[in-house]
Design a protein that fits this description.
The protein is an alpha/beta fold and 286 residues long. It has a single domain, classed as NAD(P)-binding Rossmann-like Domain (Rossmann fold, 3-Layer(aba) Sandwich), CATH 3.40.50. 56% of the residues lie in helices and 12% in strands. Strands 3-2-1-4-5-6-7 form a seven-stranded parallel β-sheet, sandwiched between helices. The termini are far apart. The mean pLDDT is 95. This is Short-chain dehydrogenase/reductase. GO terms for molecular function: oxidoreductase activity. Pfam families: adh_short (PF00106).
């Protein structure tokens, strides 16, 4: 039986997840992880060979997620920390987003978090452990062309508050990491997909949303070129801070963009936020 504190990491194969895995191992946790697909297991283990176990887990079915995580947790001698890094971020305005894609985004980004909590809370009670969820400034400030993602992150904000309130009596802390834009492979794939989407808009779609799409892509390309996106390692450092601090903060913003947006949400009216966000888009050259 390992004397180390034990962590369960969900979504370890993404850019942030891989950085969190390395940080947990470096901090001295015995790590068990899940990745999104079987093909990701070997590359993950090549990068994190001291991980004690890794399984493939699809988060798009929260009922199945609860069953799998409950079975996985029951095989561990203890669970001191559970960290969830997985998310999907489809780009589409509300009028255009497919209902199935919207549902899938909510399932992966929010419903799966509830399933993981339900599966692991019996173990976290025993250790007075912590659950760290990954939100976004998009859970407080909406932006165009991200309808499904924004809705899922707003929902996760509320869910996290409820979980934190309900778990306090057991000494279990529920913490939300709030990254801004991270320079990850997923972010770069999203940039490539945006170009493809813009090129394939119908005439009506291009008339209604073409400018917003192009403005969004310009701003994201500009940030990547200028190196202003935060690193996955910065997010991983936030996770470790959330696990070490006693008591932890309820939320940990990551990156200057996240801190700016979250401050905007605290101190501005809805109309003022709308004006700031739309001005950022409108000021981009077309």
């Amino acid at each position: 039986m390992s004397a180390k504190p034990a962590a369960l990491l969900i979504g370890a194969n993404g850019g942030m997840g891989r950085a969190v895995a390395r940080a947990l191992l470096d901090t001295g946790y015995a790590l068990t992880a899940t990745v999104s697909r079987r093909a990701a297991i070997d590359p993950f283990l090549a990068d994190c060979p001291s991980c004690e176990a890794v399984e493939a887990l699809d988060l798009s079915d929260a009922v199945a997620v609860k069953e799998r995580i409950a079975a996985l947790s029951s095989r561990l001698s203890r669970v001191d920390a559970v960290v969830v890094c997985s998310a999907v971020a489809p780009c589409a305005p509300a009028e255009m987003v497919a209902i199935e894609e919207f549902r899938r985004t909510i399932e992966i980004n929010c419903s799966a978090a509830l399933a993981i909590y339900q599966a692991t809370i019996p173990h976290l009670r025993k250790t007075r452990g912590r659950l760290v969820l990954t939100g976004s400034y998009s859970g407080k400030v909406a932006t165009p062309v991200m309808a499904a993602y924004v809705a899922s992150k707003f929902a996760l904000e509320g869910l996290t508050d409820v979980l934190r309130q309900e778990a306090q009596g057991w000494g279990v802390e529920i913490v939300l990491i709030q990254p801004g834009a991270l320079d990850t492979p997923m972010m770069r794939r999203t940039q490539e997909d945006l170009g493809h989407t813009i090129a394939n808009l119908s005439a009506n779609q291009a008339e209604r949303y073409g400018d917003l799409y192009r403005q969004m892509k310009y701003r994201a390309d500009e940030a990547l070129a200028n190196g202003t996106y935060s690193s996955p390692e910065a997010a991983a450092a936030g996770v470790i801070e959330a696990l070490r601090e006693n008591p932890p903060s309820t939320r940990y913003p990551i990156g200057d963009d996240a801190r700016y947006m979250l401050n905007l949400a605290k101190n501005s009216s809805d109309r003022e936020i709308d004006d700031v966000i739309l001005d950022i888009y409108r000021s981009a050259p077309l």
